[in-house]
Amino acid sequence: MHQGQRAVVTGATNGIGEAIARQLAAEGMTVVLVGRSDQRLHQAHQRILAAVPDAELLVERADLSLLGEVRELAKRLAEQPPPEVVVSNAAVIAELGDLTAEGLQRALATNHLAPYLLLRSLVEPIGQRPARFVVVGASPTGLRRAPVDLDDLGFQAGRGLGPLPSFRPFVAYARTKNMNAMFVYALARRLQGTNITVNGAHPGIIQRTGLGQGTARGALRLFSAVLALRPSRPGPDTGADTPVWLATAPEVDGISGRFFVDRKPVATAPHTTDLARCDRLWDESARLVGLASSLWTPPGSRHGAGFTGL
Q1: Where do runs of H (alpha helix) occur along 63-167?
Q2: CA torsion angle for 50, 51, 55, 59 (degrees, to 10)?
Q3: Among 172, 163, 149, 210, which residue's Cα sits nearest to residue 95?
Q4: I need a labelling partner for 64 at 20 to 30 A (CA). Which of 10, 121, 177, 272 fits?
Q5: Minimal CA–CA distance to 188: which of 133, 144, 136?
Q6: What value does the mean pLDDT of the chain take?
Q7: 6-289: CATH superfamily
């Protein structure tokens, strides 16, 4: 059991995220549920309490497609006891032209820039305390043919997204999931010498994730309908298994910078592991979220209070 420890789970109001939160609560952790709707947060809170009556739950409302709200969320979390676990699970499929109020493509902002900003912002408050970051990604096999276009992170040029306009949002989503893996590797390298680990996990092809509901059309809607007709697909509890294991299991203590499927480390595509590509994505992401490229800021810097543990 992990009594007294604190976990933060994004995208915790349904599907895999809610299952992760419930399983961590059953482990004895105080779980902070992060979602964008007060109503859905309340409903998830009630469902988890019904399953785990002694669960210690907190809620934080934040729209992770808006970097301003991610920054405010990070500030609020930094004012609380630092988390021992952060699971980045929130993700969306969005039309290529769907821009947020901040002018960013919605899938890029939610799926990649939000975890990039949130996890980076929590590193200094955690300091040298032990902590585990888990980033929920997607199938390494399925993503091999969707390399990130480092010259077009927001999909404006649309190169390589395929001939079917209605399926391009799914390819763009796949690219953001490759960004997740690249971020894991880049952050893990920068966290060497600390007690914070970061790993990625593919939850599997899971029913009832809610991903892309209300946005799918054309070929993507057909693809989603075909998947929905497969009754053999496992549910969210199965999808939560590897992320929860990475967050809690003693056998992965100290392991960082890896990607797991069914609790086993697997290799992701070479275009996700290339150091130069990972560093370029890191630097461009820093620019987009308004952070310095360096993970560590000197004391007194305008970017933060600094960290002197290295």
Answers
A1: 67-79, 106-107, 114-126
A2: -70
A3: 172
A4: 272
A5: 133
A6: 90
A7: NAD(P)-binding Rossmann-like Domain (3.40.50.720)
